[in-house]
Amino acid sequence: MWKNKNIAGKVLARPSEWTGVKEEKKRRRGPYPLLQLCLGALLIFAAVVPENHLYRENSGQQTAQDPVVPVIRSENGETLESAVVQSKVKTDPLNLNAHAAVLLDGDTGRILYGKNEKKVLPMASTTKIMTCILALENSGLDTEVEISDRAASMPEVKLHAGKGEKYRLEDLLYSLMLESHNDTAVAIAEAVGGSVENFADMMNGKAAELGCDDTYFLTPNGLDAEDKESGKIHSTTAADLARILRYCISLSPAKEEFLAITRAPSHAFSDLSGTRSFSCVNHNALLTSMEGAVSGKTGFTGKAGYCYVGAVKKDEKLFIAALLDCGWPPHRTYKWQDMRKLVTYGDKNFEYKEIEKTGLGEETAVLVENGVESRVKVEIGTEHADRNSLRVLLGNDEKVQVRTKIAKSLHAPVREGTPVGQRDYMVDGIVIDSDPVVTAGNVELWDFEYAEKIVMGKFWM
Fold it and tell me: Taken in order 171, 173, 174, 178, is the CA torsion positive or negative?
């Protein structure tokens, strides 16, 4: 019910007014009983029908087919020079199998398509992309890893490494990412973090650093787990998971090593004693079934269902997609169907466009307090001044929003090149590029010393 609920309550709370039950004998019947009945039916109908149906034209709600340009006003020194025209995905027109899914622009990290993309769900072995990147960033590939009793006791899928056996970290990373071995994940976590618990803290710290606030790691392998004290489960969101992979393949200082491992078709190795040999095969079928596939990781547990996170490049466009709760056996191919739908959607509906950058204008200035001049001109920083355009991936109905923030005033003295603000270029509220705003000249402080200098200068002229 909507805002007519109170009206309906009043109508339904007084049945005697309509039925005549327990009325005083002396009460006179109203002169228009038929009119009263019609009015009551109308009020009940108003209470039952949702408000956004009754008042659709005036509700201000926006459908996916009717994008609007929001009115953006200047406030606190902030000016918005244009507005976004954005057609939001309100439902799931792609009819995905996954309960939660997202498609990101790999360049900017902004969401191009989402379905329950912020819902917290378990993510199974897709967890291992974080395990891998942390190991690469915090330990050398030749690091010696000894298998503990805890690691050896992990359930399938596993390498079956024995307690006390020793391996090179690099070899175990191939075991982790190609075959998704659970015992390998624990051995890596203990070698890098000292313990599984400490390594989980490292994982959560990195997630927070990346802005993945809805992610909570408990294990390095993604097995279903729950924190008994907080009640939190090992979980993430589709949006967070895609952001983590974007970091792994595009932003991390260890991105090249990560890509080399996750893209390898196979890898053979032995333990450090040379007594045992192993061969790993990459189970990421997307690498061989979709043109342009870059990297990815599969996952499955009883609570998470089938999960996947992957990246695909179409010409110059880089798409990153994440799928959570994408069916249970025997539907292991659902995730590949969804990946194709998402990548096809992104490729057909988004194109790179050149956006012209403009200057601030000759008269743009900031007030200067206690200065020999009342204003100082400002400009785009010289190191960015020659960048006249911006190349950005946009949908057919999207535009770039320009937001300029400039300080209202400065205190003298002011020196040329002093930062006083920033110009942001945004799409759908996501900042995709920024230029600094700086002062274009000097303004001295008006004080006794300056006044004395002026007077003496005139005296000796």
Answer: positive
- What is the mean predicted confidence (pLDDT) over 273-302? 97
> Is 306 in contact with 334 (CB distance < 8 Å)?
yes
- Distance between CA 377 and CA 362 in Å, rounded? 8
Exposed (0-12), middle (13-18) or buried (19+): which is 410, by Cβ within 10 Å?
Answer: buried
Residue 366, token pair as written in the block: 């900031």
Q: Give pLDDT tens digits for 72-128.
A: 322 233 333 332 333 344 578 999 999 999 999 999 999 999 999 999 999 999 999
Task: Collect all residues with Cβ–Cβ distance below 8 Å to 263 and sequence separation of at least 6.
Answer: 282, 287, 294, 295
Which candidate, 383, 353, 402, places its Cα nearest to that of 107?
353
pLDDT at 43 over 80: no
8 A C-beta contact, residue 111 and residue 102:
yes
Inter-axis angle of helices 255-263 and 169-178, nearest 10: 60
Query: In the chain, what are the domains?
Result: 5-58 (no CATH), 100-350 (3.40.710.10), 357-439 (2.60.410.10)
Q: 310 near 331, Cβ under 8 Å?
A: no
Q: Label the pairing between strands 430-439 and 375-380.
A: antiparallel
Cis previous bond, 413, omega within 30:
yes
**How sure is the predictor about 362, in pLDDT bands with cuts at 50, 70 and 90?**
confident
Contact 263/295 with Cβ under 8 angstroms? Answer: yes
